[in-house]
TrEMBL record:
Alphabetical list of CDD domains matching this protein: RING-Ubox_PUB
Membrane-spanning ranges: none
Pathway entry: Protein modification; protein ubiquitination
Organism from which the protein derives: Lupinus angustifolius
Protein's GO biological process: protein ubiquitination
Domain of life: Eukaryota
Listed InterPro entries: ARM-like, ARM-type_fold, ARM_PUB, Armadillo, RING-Ubox_PUB, Ubox_domain, Znf_RING/FYVE/PHD
Gene3D superfamilies: Leucine-rich Repeat Variant, Zinc/RING finger domain, C3HC4 (zinc finger)
U-box domain ranges (all copies): 6-81
Catalysed transformations (reactions): S-ubiquitinyl-[E2 ubiquitin-conjugating enzyme]-L-cysteine + [acceptor protein]-L-lysine = [E2 ubiquitin-conjugating enzyme]-L-cysteine + N(6)-ubiquitinyl-[acceptor protein]-L-lysine
Protein name per Swiss-Prot or TrEMBL: RING-type E3 ubiquitin transferase
Keywords tagged on the record: Repeat, Transferase, Ubl conjugation pathway
GO molecular function annotation: ubiquitin protein ligase activity
Length: 364
């Protein structure tokens, strides 16, 4: 077993000081473990932890495959135990009963949830096509989706799963599955969309974005929230914003935001970046009122995206500027300059400038 002291420092995350399991590169050129840097961003920081310099908005996290390969030499994959091999054999055997397959999926899902090495062994066993085929069976569907979700936690598997044909089956579940299965399928889309090429592939797949919009419109509870989260992941890719607008996402998302689904505001923040999205948002009666309500009562992340949305809208519409000023946005933003969150302060400052500039007839 490799002792902690034997692990080179460049394989350890600068934040957690532990060996990285999912190394990603920031635009600053420095590498961190994905979970550690994501917590850094979620806490409101907008700088590189090492250089302390500001990062671009929506700074991409680029998988460091070379370093990941090097790390794997310090964390060798243990062989599957006889019990694990039996579970995989039972799942893959055409003669196994549905009950046996379900039991195997249940155990494999539990074992793979927190064990990256075990996930690697499952993938290397060649059983993924069998798991995909299990989605077609009503009894096995939810467990198969859950196992695929676990496998997708590793970046090396994300592109491979899409290449194996997971998108077709996931979209079918989004359209016609049970509420619980739709929730897991939407979460799987979010996980797969961490990789940029998958955002393009999934977004271009017929009915993928439309199915997610339909769930946000008509779904309940968890499936609705997970579908909105999946839309957010996909719409960080510019081409998918127009696709979402064409699927009628804007009114659906604004109605959901008005009903308290804050994740919908985050998607609106992305759609407001494209001309088609802004046009649809402006057409929605009460859009400014909804965003102002989030500014007053939302979480830190909700406030960030309400500010982003208003920035995009105010820089392109005098009518929105007038409405925003009437709703007290200028005063709210002045108050937000005092909060302990870099992103909120920065976006509030930009919006103040946009409102004041438009008052004087100056474009953003």
């Amino acid at each position: 077993m490799i002792m902690e002291s034997e692990v080179p420092e460049h394989l350890k995350c600068p934040i957690s000081l532990e060996i990285m399991s999912d190394p990603v590169i920031l635009s600053s050129g420095h590498t961190f473990d994905r979970s550690s840097i994501q917590r850094w961003f979620d806490s409101g920081h907008f700088t590189c932890p090492i250089t302390k310099l500001p990062l671009p908005l929506h700074s991409p996290l680029i998988p460091n495959h070379a370093l990941r390969t090097l790390i794997s030499t310090f964390t060798p994959t243990p062989p599957l135990t006889h019990h694990h091999e039996t579970l995989i054999s039972s799942l893959a055997s055409p003669s196994s009963s549905l009950h046996s397959k379900h039991d195997s999926l249940r155990h494999l899902t539990r074992l793979s949830k927190r064990d990256a090495l075990f996930r690697r062994r499952i993938t290397e066993s060649g059983v993924v096509p069998v798991v995909l085929s299990c989605i077609d069976d009503d009894l096995l569907r939810e467990k198969a989706l859950s196992l695929l979700l676990n496998l997708s936690l590793d970046d090396d598997n994300k592109v491979g799963l899409v290449a194996e044909g997971v998108v077709r089956r996931v979209v079918a579940v989004l359209i016609g599955g049970s509420s619980d299965c739709r929730a897991v399928a939407a979460t799987l889309v979010t996980s797969l969309a961490v990789v940029e090429v998958n955002k393009a592939t999934i977004g271009a797949y017929t009915h993928a974005i439309g199915a997610l919009v339909s769930i946000v419109r008509s779904g309940k509870g968890r499936e609705k929230k997970e579908a909105a989260t999946a839309l957010y992941a996909l719409c960080s890719f510019p081409d998918n914003r127009r696709r979402a607008v064409d699927c009628g996402a804007v009114p659906v998302l604004l109605q959901s935001a008005d009903s308290g689904l804050e994740r919908a505001v985050e998607v609106i923040g992305l759609l407001a970046k494209c001309k088609e999205g802004r046009e649809q948002i402006e057409k929605f009666d009460g859009c400014v009122r909804i965003l102002v309500r989030v500014l007053r009562n939302g979480s830190s992340k909700g406030i960030q995206y309400a500010l982003l949305s208003l920035n995009s809208l105010c820089c392109n519409s005098d009518g929105i500027v007038e409405e925003a000023i009437e709703e007290g946005v200028l005063e709210i933003c002045v108050g937000l300059l005092e909060v302990d969150n870099d992103k909120i302060r920065r976006n509030a400052s930009i919006l103040i400038q946009a409102l004041r500039s438009n008052r004087r007839g100056v474009n953003c």
